[in-house]
Every structure is written in C-alpha cells, then in structure tokens.
Specification:
642 residues, 20 helices
Length: 642
C-alpha cells in the first residue's frame, strides 16, 4: 500500500517550489520567442493595454503545454542535483531507499502535470487558439497609429499625403504643413498649405480632426449640370483657421472567427477524430471524381460524333490507321487549325491538372495536419514524463545543483528534442515522411535515453566519468600508455634482486620461445579472429611474470634500475588475437563489415606492436639482469645497494 512518508513530502516540496519558479521562466522565454514572430506587424498600431493584455493572455494559455516539459526537466535536474551535492542523496541510499523509491512522489506529481497538460490541449488550448488567431488577425488589419515624420511625405492616412517640415513634440504643433489630397481622380486633387496646425483623433476613433492656421487651399474642380460638363480651372481659398476631418479608423474591429475554427489546432481530440472521418470520405470522393474525369478525357477533341470517335480510337489502337499519314493529307490551313486546337487542348488539360494537383495537395495537407495535431496532444503530454526521467537521473548522477550545469544540460536536451520534433513535423507536413514517423521522432529518440539514464542512476553506474571514456577511446584507437615509476621516499623492504633476476631470465627464455613458435608478422585468419576463441595464455603468463618482477624492483633505490623499469612496454595481452573478450561481440563486429575491417587492421597493428615489445623486453633484460644480479650479490653481502 502506498504511504506518504516524510521523505516524499520533503522531495515534493523542493521540487514544487523549483517547478513553479522554472515554469514562469520557461513560459516567459517561450512567449518572447513567440512574440518575435509578430513584433514587426504589431509595432506602431497604437494598441491599447487591454488589447495587449488579451494578446499575452491567450498566448500564455497556448504555450503552457510546451512550458511544462522544459520546467519539469530543469526543476528535476536542480532538485536531485542539490540532493546529490549536499550528500542528502547519499544518505537516502545509505538508508536502503533506492532512487526509484525516492522519486515516487515526484512521479505522481509529474503524471498529474501530464494530465493537466492534456486537459489544456483538449479544452483550453483550442479556445485560446481561436481567440488568439482572431485577435492577431484583427490587430494586423488595424490601421497604424499616426506617427508623422519630419521632412518626408507620410501616406499612412487613406487618400492623403501629409508633409511636415518640423514638429514640436512637447506641444504637438506641426509647422510647414503641405497636404496633397486625392478625392477621386487627378482632376479632383487638392493641395493645402498651412503655416502650422494640430492633428488629433475624434472620440469614436473613426476620424482625424486636422486644425490648420494661416494657409491656402488649391483645388481642381469639375462641375456638371444638365448633362453637360463644364471645367473650372481651380479653386483657391485663403484661411486663417480651418478644420478638416479625415477618415481614419484607428479602432480595433474583431474579424469573424468562423474560418479559424476549421483549423486542426482549434479542435479537441474527439472533434479531430470525428472530422478525420469526414475528411477521408470527402477526399476519397474527390479522388474518385478526378479519376472519372481522367477516364472520360482525351488528349484531343476531334469534331466527330461519339460513335465515330469510338471507331477512330479503336482503329488507332489496332494500328490500322496511321495518324501521321492522315495529318499529311490535310491542307496547310487545316494543319494549322489542327495544331492550334491540339495546343489549346493540351494547355487547357495542363491547367486543369495543375489545379487538381494543388487542390489534392491542400486536401492531403489538411488531413495530415489533423493527424499531426491528434498525435501532438499525446506526445506533448508524454514528454513531461520523458523529460522527468531524463532530468531526475541526470541530477542524481551529476550531483550539481543551482542554475549552472542543470541549465546547460536542460537547454541542450530541449534543443535536441526541439530540432527532432520540428524536423519531423515539417517532413510529415510536406508529405516527405509518414505522419506517425515524423511526430514520434523526438519521443522515440528521447525515450531510450531516459530509460538509460534512469537505469544507470538507479544502479549507481558511472556515466559521466571522463576518465572512463578517455580510457575507452585510448583502448579503441590503440594509443600506447607509458610506465611512470618514481623513487619511493620510504622503503620498508628492499627488492629480492636475485629472485627478480631469475624471473627476468625466465621471461627472456619464454619470450624467445614465443617469438619462435608464433608468427606475429603474418596476417591472421579472419574466421579465427571473429568467430573462434583466441585467448593467448602464453603471453598472459609472460606478462604476469614480468609485472611481478617490475612491481618488486620498483622499491629499489638504484636510479639505473628505475630508468630501465620505465622503459618496459605495457603489453596488451589479448588485443592481438581478437577485438573483444566476449564471443558474441566479436561475432557481431565481424558480421558488420565496416567495423570488422577497422578492428581487423587494429588487431594487425597490435600484433606488430607486440612483436616490437617482445624484442624490446629482450634488449632491456639483457642490460638489466647483470645489474640486478650485482645488486643481489651486494645485498647478500650486506653492502650498499644504491
């Protein structure tokens, strides 16, 4: 039976506080990233604070399901990183509580957050999307705010061009005003000059009231009466004060939202599944109709009756009539008519096919978008669990809290997921990949990673040990390691020189026998390398005896002996016979040709290296054994051995 313990409450409290903080941070980052897409179209529209508040509110509701996974990843990383850094996680494991038991309260919380995410996408998200798109389109269609620049003509007011030589920002007064108005045609144009003036919007935000001082009005006029037009050159008016009303709707008129509700993002899961049946049925009917039209259509349209057309078609099919012969018998004028008719028919058929292709692609894309949105509602909720099982184990492994390493890792993981998810979405939307493969790409890649990190963290395995990977790379590339033996400051017992000299003599003897019986410079049989056991016990015994002598002689005080000991090579005891110690791994490597070739030549390299190492051991022993024997004689006589 599940019982709530103090440890569960403690971990849940730490996670909850961090989740709330990171959620608002992630929400803010996503909203700013989303806002940059539309900032150029919304600047200068004179939008009120109420409209902007609605814009950000609907945007926040839409982006909440995307902020949940990133907030869970970051907060779980910091939570278990803090526990590991403060050794609390070590104390928890020392008490016999596994990592999965410590995470059980958070698992319940994350499952609840996943359900909340799905609820947002199912109920709140579609409504927020409709309201957001309706508001966004209305904001884009809104006339811009009047911001008249100095020294250039401003055409933001419909039907007028306004020029201002200078303006006073403190009083709002405009100086050196020139207005060019187009009431209908060029004959009705008017030019207004004024020394100064003011401009302000009316209370209903539908017009602009322009007050001008000390100016003149020039206007071309056209009068008509009794059906006879009489031209008047122009009208000139001098005024000291004049008010002009200009049409300028600066209010926000909401557009209709009916067309937005047809978008897949504006529908719930149940409605998407219901509409998919209708979409499939409609697309099938269109496809059948196009197929019927294609069967009835012909490349040409001969001026024959239906019976004659069928007869001619059968004769052409049986090759009893030669089209080229019939065409050659026509007159020149008739040939031009036939070519013109054929060209027009071909162009009409091409235009019809292009239209049908575009229409079919639009129907197919609508079908894919509905499928993608239905899958996205599930995968986005499931990503909360996936990101938790990545963040919590990573925090337990890295054991670094705060906002340093966790933020870097969270950003990297989210970037990988974002790239995979968007790439899959675009490829699926363009019908290059199937919808299921494209939308499940990110989830399919991150799920094994989450399982791997959870398994490693639960078993206290070392994942981010740099030395481990460094040694693995050194081993795979065959990079040689050197000995580093230094003189000991304190020596409790001197080496047994005479015994060590006998060991070295036996090593030299065994090496000579080994080199005589084993042809290391020959190419080995690939079958024996990858599919048969190839342990070299002889070289293992030689290396073991040599290491015993080296370990004992390392306690010497003689500098010459220490120098020679550092010259002994580090022997790889099995790399010259097979790539790996496990038989199944060797077989898999051999079956996969690229890796098989790499490890085969790597093994040849180790065989050549072993041949040189054995020769080097013989040369070193030849020089070292006499000195070790001398030191042993001095040791037996009680002399100085330094």
């Amino acid at each position: 039976m599940f019982r709530i313990k103090k440890l569960d409450i403690f971990i849940a409290k730490q996670f909850g506080l961090l989740f709330i903080a990171t959620f608002f941070i992630c929400q803010f980052v996503l909203m700013m990233q989303f806002l940059w897409r539309y900032v150029d179209e919304l600047i200068g529209k004179g939008l009120s604070l109420e409209v902007m508040a609605q814009f950000f509110w609907y945007m926040g509701l839409m982006l909440m399901p995307q902020a949940f996974p990133l907030a869970i990843l970051l907060s779980s990383l910091i939570t278990f990183g803090n526990l590991g850094e403060s050794s609390e996680l070590t104390a928890i494991k020392a008490a016999g509580i596994s990592l999965m038991q410590a995470m059980r309260s958070l698992i319940v919380i994350v499952v609840a957050i996943s359900c909340i995410s799905f609820f947002f996408q199912e109920v709140i998200g579609p409504k927020a999307f409709v309201s957001f798109r309706q508001l966004l389109v209305s904001m884009k269609q809104k006339n811009p705010e009047v911001e008249i620049p100095e020294g250039i003509f401003y055409d933001g007011i419909p039907g007028s061009n306004l020029y201002v030589q200078k303006k006073n920002l403190d009083t709002g007064t405009l100086y050196g005003i020139m207005i060019y108005r187009m009431n209908g045609s060029y004959e009705d144009a008017a030019i207004i000059l004024a020394d100064s003036g003011r401009i302000q919007a009316t209370a209903e935000k539908k017009h602009l009231l322009l007050t001008l001082y000390s100016g003149e009005w020039f206007e071309n006029m056209r009068q008509s009466g009794m059906g006879v037009a009489a031209n008047v050159p122009y009208r000139r008016e001098t005024f000291s004060t004049k008010q002009i009303v200009l049409d300028f709707d600066s209010g926000l008129d909401m557009v209709e939202a009916g067309w937005i509700s047809a978008d897949a993002r504006a529908k719930s899961m149940g409605r998407i599944l219901h509409d998919l049946d209708s979409i499939h049925e409609f697309n099938d009917s269109v496809g059948h109709q196009f197929y019927s039209d294609a069967q009835r259509s012909t490349m040409g349209r001969p001026k024959l009756s239906t019976k004659d057309s069928v007869k001619v078609s059968r004769m052409v099919a049986k090759e009893t009539v030669d089209i080229d012969t019939l065409f050659a018998k026509l007159t020149g004028e008739r040939k031009q008519q036939v070519m013109s008719i054929a060209s027009n028919d071909a162009q009409a058929t091409l235009n019809e096919m292009e239209y049908k292709v575009e229409y079919s692609n639009a129907l197919n894309q609508d079908d894919r978008e509905h499928q993608m949105e239905a899958i996205n509602k599930v995968t986005l909720s499931l990503s909360c669990l996936i990101f938790f099982f990545i963040g919590a184990p990573l925090g337990a492994i890295i054991r670094k809290g705060g906002l340093g390493v966790p933020v870097i890792i969270s950003v990297l993981v989210f970037i990988v997921f974002y790239i995979l998810d968007n790439t899959g979405m675009k490829m699926a939307r363009d019908d290059n990949w199937t919808v299921w493969f494209g939308k499940l790409l990110g989830t399919a890649v991150l799920t094994p990673i989450a399982c791997f990190f959870t398994y490693k963290a639960n078993n206290d395995s070392v994942v981010f040990n740099i030395d481990l990977y460094k040694n693995l790379i050194i081993s795979m590339l065959g990079i040689r390691t050197k000995r580093y033996i230094t003189r000991k400051e304190v020596i409790i017992e001197d080496p047994k020189y005479l015994a060590d000299s006998e060991i070295l003599k036996n090593v030299s003897l065994e090496v000579s026998k080994y080199m005589e019986h084993h042809k290391l410079l020959r190419w080995p049989n690939p079958i024996k390398v990858f599919f048969r056991p190839g342990d070299d016990h002889d070289i293992e015994q030689i290396n073991g005896a040599l290491e015993v002598a080296i370990e004992d002689l390392a306690y010497t005080k003689n500098n010459y002996v220490l120098m020679k000991l550092n010259q002994y090579p580090v022997i790889a005891t099995h790399a010259h016979t097979r790539p790996f110690k496990r038989k199944w791994l060797n077989a898999v490597t051999g079956l996969f040709l690229p890796t098989g070739i790499f490890f085969y030549f790597r093994m040849i390299r180790f065989r050549v290296r072993l041949y040189r190492d054995l020769q080097n051991i013989l040369r070193i022993n030849e020089k070292l054994i006499p000195r070790v024997i001398d030191l042993g004689d001095l040791q037996a006589e009680g002399g100085i051995t330094t």
